[in-house]
Design goal:
This protein has 453 residues and is α/β, with parallel strands linked by helices. The chain has 13 helices and 19 strands.
Length: 453
């Protein structure tokens, strides 16, 4: 990735901030038609899928996003090798790469950025970005973060979150251009003493991480256990609620910027600098909010996100149903951004699992660690905390039990040992054919704490 290409992409992204909403819409439609023409030429899956719905390449100029059928993560993964537009990408090889090369900074074939996640749906997903795609993904991040002023002195960027896999945020942090940033990545699963020591030694100029992780640092700052002075703070991955925002601002005298992203999008949405609302970047994403019957909802009503990523030509996601629920607003924002406003994000909260150790002390497993649980052959899963020292995983697998289940146990042993819980928590796996949604709410619950059962 050339730094000149990146800076040019950032300049283009910043230029879009001065467009009108109508100009943004026109730009979005132009990019949509270009992407649609691309997939009809390069993706065996999309070409067949759309032909079954009466759409071929000659229809591109008159087709709107809402005219196309919806796909979801299950459809994507079942048709992965045919969906991607690069024949070098194979599902089995990507799963092997993730399992054997957990370092998020490592590229597949030294070319592709690979991200794996279950999100909050429990269904494993793979998302690959080619070099051109990654330039735009980075540019959208720098639209939020800005280019460091002193190009001759790298900005020190610290991250706190899950670091032991190809997850979205850590992959983005590892992909930060080293000519601009010096990066420190701290695992949320590390002992708190180590986190504080490393953070104090690094003295970051900017801080990014899960809201709960940054809040943990704020508590340590207020307790006098660290003394850092970041000038910029961005929070994502879990909810930045008012209490966490207040705690961070009190500790660092910085009002954090709320981020909303996903493995499918990377930098998808951000809070403006006036801290009013989240804006989703509809110059590069087309979004529709729908009900359970896939019918559009009114502005101000909650609905499921149907996404089209307009820049990923390697693994195109067109009319892709996400598990997230949002509420859009049609009110203007004082910041002047032309991008559409997200009033509220619903359904993106998973809970901490607290366990009681043999000495009576308590320790937690951060939900994001379980959200990002990955083993080749594991297709869907759900965690039940069945006691203060017991954890059950229901799992749907595709492959030989004797080769997949031991790897699942080994992965959980790694997670437990990082928190010194390996002698405390009894972990069991129950293989099932299907995992149902909650019968009361109709929604999927990935993590069910002991107190909530």
């Amino acid at each position: 990735m050339s730094i000149l290409n990146l800076l040019q992409a950032v300049r283009s992204a910043k230029k879009a901030e001065s467009l009108s909403p109508q100009q943004i819409h026109d730009l979005q439609q132009k990019r949509f038609k270009k992407l649609l023409r691309h997939v009809l030429q390069k993706s065996r899956f999309y070409k067949k899928y759309y032909k079954e719905h009466g759409i071929t390449e000659r229809d591109v100029d008159k087709v709107l996003p809402e005219d196309l059928p919806v796909i979801d993560k299950q459809i994507m993964m079942e048709n992965y090798d045919d969906l991607v537009c690069d024949p070098a990408l194979k599902k089995s090889s990507l799963e092997q790469f993730i399992n054997e090369s957990p370092d998020a900074g490592t590229k597949y074939k030294n070319v592709y950025r690979v991200i794996n996640t279950s999100g909050s749906s429990g269904t494993i997903g793979l998302f690959v970005y080619g070099p051109r795609d990654w330039v735009i993904a980075r540019a959208l991040s720098l639209r939020i973060a800005g280019i460091p002023i002193h190009l001759l002195k790298r900005e020190k960027l610290a991250f706190i979150g899950a670091t032991d896999g190809h997850y979205a945020v850590i992959t983005g942090v590892c992909g930060a251009p080293r000519i601009l940033f010096k990066v420190l990545s701290l695992s949320i699963s590390s002992p708190l003493e180590k986190i504080c020591r490393d953070m104090d030694r690094f003295q970051p100029d900017a801080l990014v991480g899960y809201a709960s992780g940054v809040s943990l640092l704020a508590h340590e700052q207020l307790s006098g256990n660290i003394n850092i002075a970041p000038k910029k703070i961005w929070c994502g991955g879990d909810p930045l609620n008012p209490a966490i925002r207040t705690n961070i601002k009190k500790a660092f005298d910085v009002n954090p910027i709320n981020l909303y992203g996903a493995s499918e999008t990377m930098s998808f949405s951000a809070e403006c600098k006036r801290h009013h609302r989240l804006h989703f970047f509809d110059d590069w994403f087309s979004v529709q909010v729908v009900d359970k019957d896939l019918k559009p909802v009114m502005t101000g009503q909650a609905g499921r996100v149907i996404l089209t990523n307009l820049y990923n030509y390697t693994q195109p996601l067109i009319r892709y149903q996400m598990n997230d629920e949002i509420v859009l607003s049609d009110e203007p924002c004082q910041c002047g951004w032309p991008f559409q406003i997200i009033e509220k994000i619903a359904g993106r909260h998973e809970e901490f699992l607290w366990f009681t150790k043999t000495d009576g002390s308590k320790e937690f497993i951060h939900p994001i660690v379980l959200v990002e649980f990955f083993v080749p052959g594991l297709e869907k899963y759900q965690f039940f905390q069945t006691g203060t020292d017991r954890l059950l995983m229901k799992a749907v697998i595709n492959g030989e039990k004797d080769s997949i289940v031991p790897v699942m146990h080994n992965r959980m042993s790694e997670i437990l040992s990082q928190k010194s819980l390996e002698d405390t928590v009894q972990f069991d796996i129950e293989l099932v054919d299907e995992i149902q949604n909650d019968p009361k709410t109709g929604k999927f619950r990935l993590i069910i704490p002991f107190a909530k059962q």
